[in-house]
Specification:
Strand order of the largest sheet: 3-2-1-4-5-7-6
Distance between the termini: 39 Å
CATH architecture of the largest domain: 3-Layer(aba) Sandwich
Number of strands: 7
Low-confidence stretches: none
Mean pLDDT: 94
CATH topology of the largest domain: Rossmann fold
Largest sheet: 7 strands, mixed
Strand content: 5-15%
Number of domains: 2
Structural class: alpha/beta
Radius of gyration: 20 Å
CATH class of the largest domain: Alpha Beta
Helix content: 25-40%
Number of helices: 12
Length: 299
């Protein structure tokens, strides 16, 4: 299946610099593509702990004594390591993209290409869905999330249109939302604009930016010295957060130096220039087009 094809596989595995006897985390198990490759590089003493908040991912679990899959949002990974009495680890991998098994399943409501319920929950036990966001957020709240998370230029007009339509009846399906919003854009721009809007709602539903921030903060205390952090992001908000955290140790990107002029960050950048997919990979897997890989080493 398509979702077994991981993005930037060779580059991310090389970035982890795997020690055969080491302990590694795959924080975004999904189809298991990255995990399968990590396992190949481990000895009998090595181990891999993976996390996924979606129960559907467990269908792809790896039958191997060195492997453990935990049903949880990755922002809680530190708690689970403590619970399982696992100390520090040698590498952490996170692929922040939405899995193809989400995008290609109409029932999950992630894609504007299919008819289906307005859902977008990665954790199906979560209370907040896209339907709730679209139908209960105020015009101001909708405009803010569309502007910040979708980076759309006409956020207030879009929010206004949504609020006006829901006064008559709830916007319950992907098809409803697409029908309401499509006339607002030139035909050649429609798909691009809808993608931005759906991205914004999805980020809000899953609290993706707050979760990423929490996860990154927890990597500092979890990695061994010289341990690697490998993160693949897909939009500018995520990439900026990862870049700032690695470079400066904070999310604003404010460089602070000690008395001797050393930057106060727990990490050293392994790749100064962001790594992106080759033209060949983009051709074989179009969804990799926006992927950006950053690798850091714990000091």
């Amino acid at each position: 299946m398509a979702y077994h094809v991981p993005v930037l596989l060779r580059e991310s595995i090389e970035g982890l610099n795997i020690l055969p006897n080491g302990t590694y985390l795959d924080l975004t198990f999904g189809g298991g593509g990255h995990s399968h490759e990590v396992i190949k590089h481990l000895s009998k003493k090595g181990r891999l702990i993976a996390f996924d908040q979606d129960k559907a991912a467990f269908a792809n679990a790896i039958d191997d004594k060195r492997f453990m899959l935990i049903h949880s949002n990755f922002k809680y990974f530190k708690n689970f390591l403590r619970y399982h009495k696992i100390g520090k680890v040698d590498g952490i991998l996170a692929d922040l993209g939405v899995s193809s098994m989400h995008f290609d399943n109409p029932e999950r409501g992630f894609s504007f290409r299919f008819e289906g319920p307005l859902d977008m929950r990665m954790n199906q036990n979560a209370k907040l869905s896209a339907k709730e966001v679209v139908n209960t957020y105020s015009e101001k709240e909708l405009a803010q999330l569309l502007s910040i998370y979708g980076e759309v230029s006409n956020a207030y007009k879009i929010a206004q249109t949504i609020v006006k339509h829901r006064e008559n009846e709830p916007i319950a399906t992907v098809e409803n939302l697409v029908e309401i919003l499509s006339p607002m854009f030139p035909t050649q721009q429609t798909n691009k604009q809808l993608a931005k809007i759906f991205q914004a709602v999805r980020i809000e539903v899953n609290q993706e930016m707050e979760t990423l921030k929490e996860m990154l903060k927890n990597t500092t205390a979890t990695l061994n010295p010289n341990g690697r952090l490998v993160v693949i992001s897909y939009h500018s908000l995520e990439d900026r957060m990862v870049k700032n955290f690695i470079r400066s140790g904070n999310f604003k990107g404010e460089i602070k130096s000690d008395f001797y002029g050393n930057v106060e960050s727990d990490f050293e950048q392994i790749n100064r220039k962001v790594i992106v997919p080759t033209e060949k990979e983009i051709e074989e897997n179009p969804r990799s087009r926006s992927a950006k890989l950053r690798i850091a080493q714990k000091k």
